[in-house]
């Protein structure tokens, strides 16, 4: 068995510990980072089982044992069981175990930002590389990331964050007014 085949088997084994309903595409208003039914990560308190040789690079690429995880479905499922804990570390969490994952900057990437008109005005929607989308709002605010040249990121559930990709950042900047701000769900966010 090749290293990649073995790696894929190890990852599938970890994922096999996640209840099946969290693998299914979500419908309705369920917000999750991967667009699937959100896992109840707050209710899962498994024992720490050690580090796993997994890393998320600054550009959002997931690696296992130094090899990029090419199957998007696999790393997107992992994104759905990722959380940041009080110690500042990121963990993949299942009902029975948790493993630490190294994150270089932000675990997720905003691939696009789209305006939508609502009864309350314009709502900006951030689309994530893992498949989910979130409204930019007071609950999911835009914040500047100095380590990324001031590009914005948003806070997400479970202590996660998502940094704007270059195209998403340029699109957001293009939407800004003369005060270098955007308004979403009635909240103003300054980009500079």
Would you tell me the overall average pLDDT?
Answer: 87
Q: Give the assembly state of these chains.
A: single chain
Whole-number total of structural domains? 2
Radius of gyration: 17 Å
Tally of DSSP β-strands: 14
Percent of residues in β-strands: 35-45%
Q: How helical, in percent, are the residues?
A: 10-25%
Structural class, by secondary structure, is: alpha+beta
CATH architecture of the largest domain: Roll
Name the features:
192 residues, six-stranded mixed beta sheet, duf1285 like fold, disordered N terminus, 16% helix, globular, alpha+beta
Please sum up the structure shown:
By secondary structure, the protein is of the alpha+beta class. It contains 3 helices and 14 strands. The longest helix has 13 residues, at 3-15.
What can you see in these coordinates?
By secondary structure, this protein is an alpha+beta fold. The protein contains three helices and 14 strands. It is globular and about 50 Å long. The N terminus is likely disordered.
What's the SSE blueprint?
Elements: H1 3-15, E1 48-56, E2 62-64, E3 67-68, H2 72-79, E4 82-84, E5 90-93, E6 98-103, E7 108-118, E8 121-128, E9 133-135, E10 142-144, E11 152-155, E12 161-164, H3 166-175, E13 181-184, E14 187-190
Parallel strand pairs: 1-6, 7-12
Antiparallel strand pairs: 1-2, 2-3, 4-5, 5-6, 7-8, 8-9, 10-11, 11-12, 13-14
């Amino acid at each position: 068995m090749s290293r990649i085949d073995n790696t894929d088997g190890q990852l599938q084994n970890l994922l096999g510990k996640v209840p099946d309903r969290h693998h299914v595409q979500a419908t309705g208003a369920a917000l999750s980072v991967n667009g699937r039914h959100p896992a109840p990560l707050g209710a899962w308190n498994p024992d720490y089982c050690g580090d796993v040789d997994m890393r998320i690079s600054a550009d959002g690429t997931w690696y296992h044992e130094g090899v990029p995880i090419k199957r998007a479905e696999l790393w997107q499922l992992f994104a759905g069981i990722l959380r940041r804990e009080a110690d500042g570390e990121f963990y993949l969490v299942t009902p029975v175990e948790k493993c630490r994952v190294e994150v270089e900057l932000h675990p997720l990437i905003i691939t696009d930002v789209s305006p939508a008109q609502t009864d309350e005005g314009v709502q900006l929607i951030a689309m994530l590389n893992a498949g989910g989308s979130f409204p930019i709002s007071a609950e999911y605010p835009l914040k500047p990331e100095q380590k990324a040249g001031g590009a914005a990121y948003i806070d997400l559930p479970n202590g996660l964050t998502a940094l704007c990709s270059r195209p998403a950042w340029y699109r957001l900047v293009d939407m800004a007014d003369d005060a270098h701000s955007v308004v979403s769900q009635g909240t103003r966010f300054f980009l500079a």
